[in-house]
Specification:
3-stranded mixed sheet; alpha/beta; 44% helix; 290 residues; Spore Coat Polysaccharide Biosynthesis Protein SpsA, Chain A
């Protein structure tokens, strides 16, 4: 691949309905010095042909089909290994960026070496015209303050994971390399412990509504052992707590308390998601008969 300023990694699997729009939003960027590397995880729909057609039409686009399905986690992380440009960015198959997104964020990073990543306000599809739905927080301050901010904003941190980030930072990521609930939050924490994360006031990242967190029972998907019934975010919590030794004791205590609260709340929602469908199918019909 030719050299460029930014490598964009797009993992795809059966995304024929969304991938064209996502690619077009990247091709239409005012900043054009990028490569778009698409890793297809053995799609069995029309995704491959759509991506191949774009690769033929635009020399900045490269399409690779894996011989076997690597799983979503490996498909995402294997893209980082090819980050041979100064900057790297993941692009989800159902997300769209406004045309100025890349330009404003790369321009900011070029003049602010203390920042490891930069993104724009974000919202979900259908909320583009409602500014009250736009998420616009940044992550600045001391190490402890940045780590607390990541935890405080974890449920709304999608745009950090999909930000423009410095490739030399993300290539040295120390997050455990296996799928777990909150893996994207762990990536965000890794970025935050390495520096500030900016949010520009221009551009917009529009998130699709078909992400993994909206598909089926996400608790069951990542529940690997008994501990995940008690602490659904067990793996994320371990990684988080392994990084708090260098921050003030007050912030450490605050983080530990919030980690406990996160797991208690999530354990409740996990149990509810398992029991309620059973209630609807079996218990409620019996009650109605009586």
């Amino acid at each position: 691949m030719n050299s460029c300023k930014l490598l964009i990694g797009m993992p795809v699997f059966n995304g024929e309905k969304e991938v064209g729009r996502a690619i077009e939003s990247i091709r239409n960027q005012t900043f054009g010095d990028f490569k778009l590397l698409i890793f297809d995880n053995c799609s069995n729909d029309n995704t491959g042909k759509i991506c191949q057609d774009y690769a033929k039409a635009d020399s900045r686009i490269y399409y690779v089909r894996h011989p076997i399905n690597l799983g979503a986690h490996r498909n995402f992380m294997s893209l980082v290994e090819h980050a041979d440009a100064p900057y790297f960015m993941w692009a989800a198959v159902d997300d769209v960026r406004t045309p100025e997104y890349l330009e404003v964020n790369i321009t900011y990073l070029e003049s602010h070496p203390e920042c490891v990543a930069s993104t724009s306000p974000n919202c979900f599809e259908g909320e583009e015209d409602d500014p009250t739905c736009h998420i616009d927080f940044s992550i600045f301050g001391s190490l402890g303050n940045r780590m607390c901010q990541i935890l405080d904003n974890c449920w709304n941190s999608h745009a950090i994971f999909y930000s423009v980030m410095r490739a030399d930072i993300i290539k040295n990521c120390d997050v455990p390399n296996h799928p777990f609930l909150g893996f994207d939050w762990a990536i965000n924490l890794f970025l935050a412990k390495n520096g500030n994360i900016n949010r520009t006031d221009k551009g917009l990242l529009i998130l699709g509504r078909k992400g993994i967190s909206n598909n089926g029972n996400i608790w069951r998907m990542f529940r690997k052992s008994t501990i995940h019934w008690i602490a659904p975010f067990y793996d994320f919590s371990l990684y988080y707590l392994s990084n708090i030794a260098k921050i003030p004791i007050e912030e450490r205590i605050n983080i530990i308390i919030n980690i406990i609260k996160l797991n208690i709340s999530s354990a409740y929602h996990q149990l509810y998601s398992e029991i309620f469908p059973y209630y609807l199918s079996y218990i409620r019909p019996l009650i109605k008969r009586k």
